[in-house]
Specification:
single chain, alpha/beta, six-stranded mixed β-sheet
Length: about 475
């Protein structure tokens, strides 16, 4: 039997997925704790041991083995731009779309102290952007000169004003930096150009970062670790939305991934205004947009989630009356015991409440909004960000959605809220659940066989309804 072996070296677990090519089925899955601190292959071998007998029994032959990784904290980057709302934000969005975790974003002129702080954060890639093509180049060249004062050993990706790049390359050549040139991430005002820099981030990840993270042994067995896990999820979501030449996609959709430390939102849509008389404002949005909320999570970030939302929001989502003392007791318990698994109905309901709060806040930050102004001609409406009101599907993934009894209620917390009518959240989506965690593995498979990956996603990601 010919199969693909797909491996996700996750931040917590290493997950294996075996895909039967002929029957287009997932026939084996397993997982074990990721062991990046000792030998990454120990966790892999433990997971493989769980399926080894079946591999022999089914006479499986692996035609290819593909891997992705978010082990050891994932891909960590800092982004540098000129104006916070423009090139700095463009660099941040490009990095997030490449599956990175943004440690900090810098704007305007860099000072020596900024670089000291930047290096203390221990990023694995620095993204240097700034200036539109033909625009300001003095500040970005000065920023390159400030970086050149320091002994920087990590890769730097130059994605700024193309007219400044030759001078910056000369500066970096003189100090022996490892740098890579990209198309400008914002070639003109409010125009986003992220695909080229995303590809370069992925190439640097494959060439440099996987070795720095101790994944060398995994590469000997698995082959290339193709991309960070979040990039694999975004690839899968984009394929599921757009389809291929042979297979129809689902159309506009949003993926919600609630984890212990973060809540990720992926939107796959243009997000243009759905109502007449509304004009677009601000920085253009990519079709495939990913946002990461580091203060919203089920365990590591549950304290900051409570600080961001407050008691009233938690009480609104809890199914019964609950006092502030009980809310805070439950929050503290989960923060102090990150391995806590709810077993009672009340504990499951409180976990669902945290997840609803994560959904409400994360989608509110991700979705666009309407700003109303008044002129001599009457009311005027400007849209900033994406209009998600018309997306067809809302897909949930992550442990709390898979294991909790209330996945539909949790996902509904993402919906449009009449009390916040300017926030352009989904209105009447269908709800789907990635119950077998296949998004990252299908993102990997899509690099080899996109039609197969798409058909498997359409088969395994199921709609959930009130029934």
């Amino acid at each position: 039997m010919e199969c693909y072996l797909l491996v996700d070296f996750g931040s917590t677990n290493t997950k294996l997925t075996v895909v039967d090519i002929e029957n287009e089925e997932i026939i084996l899955t397993s997982k074990s704790i990721t062991t990046i601190e000792d030998d990454i292959m120990k966790g892999f071998n433990d997971a493989y041991e769980q399926i080894a007998d079946k591999v022999k029994e089914y006479n499986i032959s692996f035609v290819d083995k593909l891997g992705c990784s978010s082990a050891a904290g994932g891909l960590k980057m800092v982004a540098i731009g000129l104006v916070p709302e423009l090139t700095s934000e463009a660099a941040k969005r490009a990095s997030l779309g490449a599956g990175a975790k943004i440690l900090k974003t810098y704007s305007y002129e860099l000072e020596d102290d900024d670089v000291v702080e930047m290096l203390d954060l221990k990023p694995e890639i620095i993204l240097l952007s700034g200036g539109t093509d033909g625009g300001n180049k003095e500040t970005i060249i000065k920023n390159a000169s400030v970086l050149a004062k320091f002994d920087i050993k990590i890769p730097i990706i130059i994605a700024c004003n193309k007219n400044a790049q030759p001078e910056i390359a000369k500066i970096f050549d003189e100090v022996g930096f490892d740098y890579h040139r990209s198309e400008n991430v914002m070639p003109s005002i409010n125009v986003l150009n992220v695909e080229n820099v995303r590809n370069i981030i992925r190439e640097v990840f494959m060439k440099n970062i996987v070795y720095a993270k101790g994944l060398d042994n995994a590469i000997k067995y698995v082959g290339d670790v193709l991309m960070p896990t979040p990039a694999a999820v975004l690839n899968a979501a984009q394929l599921l939305s757009k389809g291929t030449e042979l297979e129809d996609g689902l159309g506009d959709l949003v993926v919600v991934d609630i984890g212990g430390a973060t809540t990720d939102i992926h939107s796959l849509c243009e997000g243009y205004p759905t109502k007449g008389g509304v004009t677009m404002k601000g920085l253009a949005e990519p079709f495939a947009k990913r946002s990461v909320e580091g203060d919203l999570g089920m365990r590591y970030s549950v304290l900051s989630c409570y600080q961001a939302a407050g008691y009233r929001t938690f009480a609104k989502h809890y199914p019964n009356d609950i006092s502030i003392e009980d809310v805070e007791k439950n929050i503290k318990h989960r923060h102090d015991d990150i391995r806590f698994v709810p077993e009672t109905n009340s504990d499951k309901a409180f976990d669902a409440t945290i997840a609803k709060v994560c959904c409400e806040l994360a989608i509110s930050r991700h979705a666009g909004y309407i700003e109303t102004s008044y002129s001599p001609f009457g009311q005027m409406f400007a849209q900033y960000g994406k209009d998600l009101t018309g997306v067809k599907y809302l897909i949930g993934t992550g442990g709390v959605l898979v294991h909790n009894d209330y996945p539909l209620d949790i996902l509904k917390a993402c919906n449009f809220d009449e009390e916040a009518p300017d926030s352009l959240r989904p209105m009447k989506p269908k709800y789907l659940l990635d119950k077998t965690y296949i998004l990252s593995s299908m993102g990997l498979l899509s690099t080899k066989e996109p039609d197969l990956a798409l058909r498997i996603m359409k088969k395994y990601i199921k709609e959930i309804t009130e029934d």
